[in-house]
Amino acid sequence: MHDEQSHARIRVLRAADHRRMPWKNGGGETVEIAVFPPEADLAAFGWRISMATVASDGPFSVFAGIDRTLSIIEGEGMELDIAGRKPVVLTRASAPLPFPADAATSARLVSGTIVDLNVMTRRGQWTHQVEKRIVEGQHHLDAEGGVTMLLSLGNMRIEGGDHAEELGRLDCAVLEGVVLITSDMPAEAYLIRITAS
Q1: Long-range contacts of range 22-25, CB-CB < 8 Å, 24 or more positions apart?
Q2: DSSP E strand stretches across 83-197
Q3: Residue 108 near residue 59 (C-beta atoms within 8 A)
Q4: Does this chain's domain 2-14+128-196 share its CATH topology with 17-124?
Q5: Cα 147 to chain center, whole Å?
Q6: Assigned architecture for domain 2-14+128-196
Q7: Would you call 171 helix, strand, or coil by DSSP?
Q8: What percentage of the chain exceeds 90 in pLDDT?
Q9: Which CATH superfamily is domain 17-124 in?
Q10: Which range among 26-30, 96-100, 183-187 shows the weakest confidence by mean pLDDT?
């Protein structure tokens, strides 16, 4: 294990540095955590990870040819009405919800403003998985292949090789190789894996 850890790489995208921008349909604000290719706009990205503040009910922006996964990270949640599916209520306790970003979708807030985590990949080029984790104590994470990121909702430490980083709330670590994640208190995190299809 120590030999593998020596090849690990950790790059942290700090919450303070995330890029803020208006929604495609003008209905709110998005905080962009990471996008590929770097600096790509909404028409050209291969993948994109962002957080959105949703303060009112209404339709989602439609993204042709994109798959998305949505998770609630702040607030009481929202009811999603996705074309061709039964309405679903998404809360902070829910598992991340994958659905096509080109299906007509509207949201109704359960009780007040929410912040969601939004992972999007261009269909046919990239695929993604989003997993909610509770980190307590020490955990090894194997970040081999593709792009692996960990968005922290609390405080945790990540070590790989001779390198260590402290993560605070909404910091996102880009990981390669096998890393050790440590948290003294239970802390929520979202593990995002993106692979070329």
Answers
A1: 23/52, 23/61, 24/61, 24/63, 25/59, 25/61
A2: 88-90, 97-100, 105-109, 114-122, 126-152, 156-160, 163-167, 172-196
A3: no
A4: yes
A5: 12
A6: Sandwich (2.60)
A7: coil
A8: 83
A9: Jelly Rolls (2.60.120.10)
A10: 26-30
Mark residue 112 as left, alpha or beta (left: phi above 0; alpha: psi -120 to 50; beta: remaining): left
Mean pLDDT over 39-68 rounds to 93
Q: What is the mean pLDDT of residues 147-158?
A: 97
CA distance 190 to 111: 23
Instruction: Give the model confidence (pLDDT) of 65-112 as tens digits.
Output: 999 999 999 999 999 999 999 999 999 999 999 999 999 999 999 999
The residue written with tokens 């993204």 in the block is 63
Domain range list for the chain: 2-14+128-196, 17-124
Q: Per the structure block, which two tokens stand in for 37?
A: 């290719």
Mean pLDDT score of the chain, rounded to an integer?
Answer: 93
Name the residue type at position 72: I
CA–CA distance, 16 with 167 (Å, rounded to integer): 12
Q: How confident is the model at residue 4 (pLDDT cuts 50, 70, 90)?
A: very low
